[in-house]
Amino acid sequence: MPSRRPNDGRKALWLAVLFILIAAAGLTYIKWWPYYGKAIKAITEHTIGSSILTGGQEAIPNPSWQSAWDYAVVYYKAVWKAAVFGILLGSLVQVLLPANWLMRVLGQRTFRSTVWGGVASLPGMMCSCCAAPIAAGLRKKNVSVGAALAFWLGNPLLNPATLIFMFFVLGWDFTLLRLAFGLAITFGVSYLANRFAGEASVSEDKLPAEALAPAQADHRPFLVRWGRSLGTMLLNVIPAYILAVLLLGAARAWLFPTLGEGAGTTVLALLIFAIAGTLFVIPTAAEIPIVQSFLSLGYGGAAAGALLVTLPTVSLPSLLMLRRAFPARVLWLVFGSVVASGLLSGLIGAFLF
C-alpha cells in the first residue's frame, strides 16, 4: 500500500471540517431556523398550513397541463432552496470527505453502519427528493447500500421537526405511529437491503488502496473535481425530477380520488392510498396538513395512517434520481416495503383513529 504524507492527512481533515461548516450554515438558513418559526405556529395554532394537494381549492383539480404546472410551481417554491442545497452537498461529499473514514464508518454491511447512516440523517430534515442527491453522492464514495438508504429514508421519516409539528397538530398517537414505522423502515428495511443487494462486505485491511487514500488523492484541481461531480449530479437528477413532478402534479385527482365519507376504510381504498402515497412527491412535513384534511373530509384513520407513512418516505422522483446509485432490486424492495408499511399503518389507523 502506498504511503501517505502527513500533509495529506491534515488536508483531508480541513476538507472534512469545511464540509461540516458548509452543511451547518446551509441547514441553519434553510431548515433549522425556519422550522423554529413553524414549530411555534404548530404549538400555538395547531396547524402548519393547508393541504398542498388541493392548491388552495376546495377539491383536487382535474388532470391537465395547468394542474401539472400549478402544482410544480407551488412545490418548487417550497423546496427549491433545499433541493439546490441537496445537490450541492451531494457533489461536495464526493470531493471533501475522506474516503477511508466513510468506508470505515459507513462502508460495511453491518447493522452498525446502517445505524450510523440513519443517525447522520437526523440534522438534515430533508424530504426524500432533497436527500436523494446526497445519498447518491455517498454511494459514489463506496458507502454501503444499507447506510446510504438509512440516510436517505431517515431524513424524511425521522425528521425531528416534523415529529414536533405532528405532535401538536395531529396528536401523540399519530406521532407515535409515525415514529414506530419510521424506525422500522429506516433501520430495518435498510439493513435488509444490504443482504438483498448482494454486495460483499470488505474488511478495512483488505480495502483497495484507492479506497483508503484521502479524498484529495486525486491531484486534479479541486474545482475540476467538484465541477465534474456537480455536472454528473445535475444530469442524473434534474431531468427526472422536473418531469416526474409535472406528471404527478397533473395526476393528483387520479392518485387521490374523491371516494366520499367513509369510503377510505375499504381495502381497495387503502391499497390505492398506500401506492399513491409512495409515488407522490411532497415538501417536508406536507403530509401533516394532507392527513389533517383527509380526516376532516371523513376518510377515517385507515387512509390517514397509510398516508402518514407513505407520503414522506419516498416518491417517484426520488426513486428515479437514485436509479444509478442503487441496484434496481433494492429500489423495488424499498418501494414494496413502503407500500406494505402503508397498508399495515392504515390497518392500525383504522382501529385507533
Automatic annotation (TrEMBL):
Transmembrane helix found in the keyword field: yes
Q: Which Pfam families match?
A: ArsP_1
Q: Where in the cell is it found?
A: Cell membrane
InterPro entries listed in its UniProt record: DUF318
Regarding the membrane, this protein is recorded as: Multi-pass membrane protein
Chief localisation class: membrane
Write down the superkingdom of origin: Bacteria
Family from the record: Belongs to the UPF0718 family.
What protein name applies here?
Answer: Permease
**To which species is this protein native?**
Paenibacillus albicereus
The upper taxonomy is: Bacteria, Bacillati, Bacillota, Bacilli, Bacillales
